[in-house]
Amino acid sequence: MKFALYGMPCAGKTTLLNALDGKIHIINGSSWLNKSTDGNFSRLPEDQKTEWRIKYTEYLMGIVDEHIISDGHYAFEDTVVFTAADGDIYDVFMYLYCEPEELLARLQTSEKNQKFANLTVDALSAWQNREIDELRLQCHKRNKDFYVLRSGKIKEAEFVEFIDAILSGFSSYHLAVNLADQIREWFPLPCELNIVDGDKTFINEDSFRLCSPGFTTTVFDGNFYTGYQSYCFEKETSSLSFKYQNLQSCTLNKLVWDKICNEQYVVLSAGVTSLWEKLGKQMGIPYVLASPLISADTKYYVAKLLRKFGYRVKGYGDSKNDLYLLKEADEGYLCLGKRMSRSLIDTDVSGFQLLYDTTPYVLADDNAAVAKDISICKSSSGINGSRLAQAHYNLGFQLGCHIRKVMPNKKTPVLVLERGGRFFGDGLYIGFGGQLYPYNPKKDILPELRSNLLLIVDSVINTGDSILQLIDKLKETYPEMQVCLATNVIQKEAISKLKDYALFAIRVSDNKFIGKRQRVQIGNSGPDTADRLFNLLDE
């Protein structure tokens, strides 16, 4: 078996490899390349470097009578040095991740790597994350195992133990093969099949947390969710005693159940096997496959294998551990519920269908500290101009921070309705993120949107009719678009009209009035919000 240990310069690869001395044949790629080029490798043109890297893989290919492990680099900043030959030669890929702050400190004291010592922590983080993402995809393409280790967290003895486990048969891919074979026995072709994550997807609760109160783990810090994290989690939980009686409080997730209840489905969970065996009997779930050893890559390979055999696959999940399953499935459904998994923050989830709770969220009910800004925004306050704009901005920011915890923001368009939504929308954008699109419905052409999720922001929603008209207009161009709404204030009667959309508001008002260019409210007419914001009211 041939292992590759990749990582950044100064990540600590040599330290780990030295722990294997005498147990497995260690080959240092950089040393071989330098020796083979009489110490001139670093000075060669890039095309010649590539030729020598391929010669190195040919050298490794010739070693057939023993297990070997070699270190390597995927890229140097924006220059990718990984070759197709690298991808083909190794059976198992491991990546040694190092915290960017620690990595920078090591680079600054390394004479050999001074050319990288002036990089920022953010630049090192982006470089490292790009390597992990791209190397993972290279492995997925070739059905290879990929494991992320953490420098400073994994001890040498633990590394040796993990290598021994792999040599003894541990494999995320081979586990997926066995799981796919079991599913094929249950569901003969032709078949459309739902592969459903367990905790926080099939059920609303996290069965493990429910039944092991007080237990904490750092295994999943970093959001890698490779087979190594699964391996460590299985070891941590193997001797735990669980409060199985707490499973009685578990409930079906109606958002998911309504979609799969009349179709063929399998619960594929990274949860504890014994917990899900009991849940299966308790809830009448006929087909359950659960193990802490089921990683994000295992789920991906299950979907890939089933599709290869001719199944049409729908994937359901709620976290980073389900991400690659959803991407590989013919249809991917991301279950957000009331709060998005922290593992998905800053993750691109475009292309998935989102399942989320449409119960309106009202910030005023949840945050008493915003009361001062709310009072400024009311028509009766008599406050206009920049002070009012600042209050709108503050409230938008607070609501945006909340929405960021609930909805994905990467590449999500934020369509701010001008003029009234201007300052509230700016604040929301700063708090939420996404991609900002100011839009005046009276004169602007709809922007080109590149996401299947849209957040529409308005300062005031009175009847809801204009919002519904805008949504209808959007659906003509983007029929699959999923729309969420954010507003400073919504009139109470409008909520029922917008019940099909996730709604986030600062407050709900019982009042309904027509905005006019006047300073005070008179009957059912009052000062126009945009005129107040821009200080354009008549004296």
Give an overview of the whole structure.
The protein has 539 residues and is of the alpha/beta class. The protein has 3 domains: 166 residues, Rossmann fold (3-Layer(aba) Sandwich); 185 residues, Rossmann fold; 173 residues, 3-Layer(aba) Sandwich (Rossmann fold). The protein is 39% helix and 20% strand. It contains 20 helices and 21 strands. Helix 19 links the parallel strand 18 and strand 19. The longest helix has 22 residues. The model has no long low-confidence stretch (mean pLDDT 92).
Which fold name corresponds to the CATH topology of the largest domain?
Rossmann fold
Question: What is the topology, as strand order, of the major beta sheet?
Answer: 10-9-8-11-12-13
Q: What is the CATH top level name of the largest domain?
A: Alpha Beta
**Secondary structure category:** alpha/beta
* Major pleated sheet: 6 strands, parallel
Number of domains: 3
Helical stretch count? Answer: 20
Helix content: 25-40%
Low-confidence stretches: none
The gyration radius over C-alpha positions equals 28 Å
Would you report the number of β strands? 21
